[in-house]
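Protein: Ribosome-binding ATPase YchF
Species: Syntrophotalea acetylenica
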Amino acid sequence: GFKCGIVGLPNVGKSTIFNAITSAGAESANYPFCTIEPNVGVVSVPDPRLDALAAIVKPQRVLPTTIEFVDIAGLVRGASRGEGLGNQFLGHIRQVDAIANIVRCFDDDNVVHVDGSVDPLRDIEVIQTELNLADLDTLEKRLSRIQKQAKSGDKELKAQQEVLEKVREVLNAGKPARAAGLSDEERGLVYDLHLITAKPVLYVANVAEDDLQGEHPHVARVRELAAREGAEAVAICGKIEAEIAELDGEEKQEFLKEMGLECSGLDRMIQAGYQLLGLITYFTAGVKEVRAWTIRQGDRAPQAAGVIHSDFEKGFIRAEVIAYDDFVACRGEAGAKEKGLLRLEGKDYVVQDGDVMHFRFNV
Ligand code: GDP
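Structure follows.
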């Protein structure tokens, strides 16, 4: 599954938000997952299309797709200069696909800010500096290893060295590795370093209860920064999320309506994460189970099948595909087939958001 790491300075509301995520996940926990570590929260991705499909197919069970949030503690100003960011921190953050950077935008005299005042842009800079330094460290270590091996004249090492030097320049200028504008090929050459600042970022502005409506100047600044960087930003209120996480489906809807909100902050975080990672959803719709699956935009049919099981990918023969709208308009597979709207697609088919799929494969 896709993983989003949560980072932030102390006292910005990380634990509050993470706890809301975990209890929201526990609430809907009918997943066939094994034991989950305490710093991992699995949440379902809300998708009204799933309910529409279920209403037609009437399956035994309905399973939404999920996204994992990983609480990555240990980021403080100066961390990478002193003892260094802990190995545990680095180990966790290297594994995630995207980073949610929680920044404090709520004023509350009872909650001390580590730097004395609420200033989200300064917080973002502190975090970026720490992550930059961690990446520089990783990169220098690799570069010095390559230099030792350079005599071998290995072309691939040479190519990697060139990319690393390019990235080093960007990092030294105080910018994240993702600003280096690497080509796909270049990215591939340095992929195994798992550079932290190469990962996409979602800024989560943690606002006061009263500031959820309208736009607080703090939040506006965070949004501007995100727009400049091609990142995503959402405003959420940790305190309210904690309350929402305690409610079940109907109560939750009522509470949101009362607050004048369309969906919870957590739902907005998930949507933004989807956007940021270029993720889309396809469905399988059988009488046993109607289920949503997450893939990347541009994934082809065999890769999509591989999300269900690696054997589906290896033995892929073809896929039967019905577009979501057609499936709903024809009230199901039989109707769609009658109208000639069930397509047979091969291994080069690029899966579209909402596709209802059935895979044929060899075992
Ligand atoms: P962490 O150190 O980043 O994990 O921060 P915590 O989640 O422990 O929050 C630090 C303090 O800020 C706690 O006392 C929270 O109750 C408080 N806090 C968190 N979110 C909000 C919020 O949205 N509004 C207000 N007023 N306080 C909050």
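Remarks: The CA atoms of residues 199 and 211 lie 29 Å apart.
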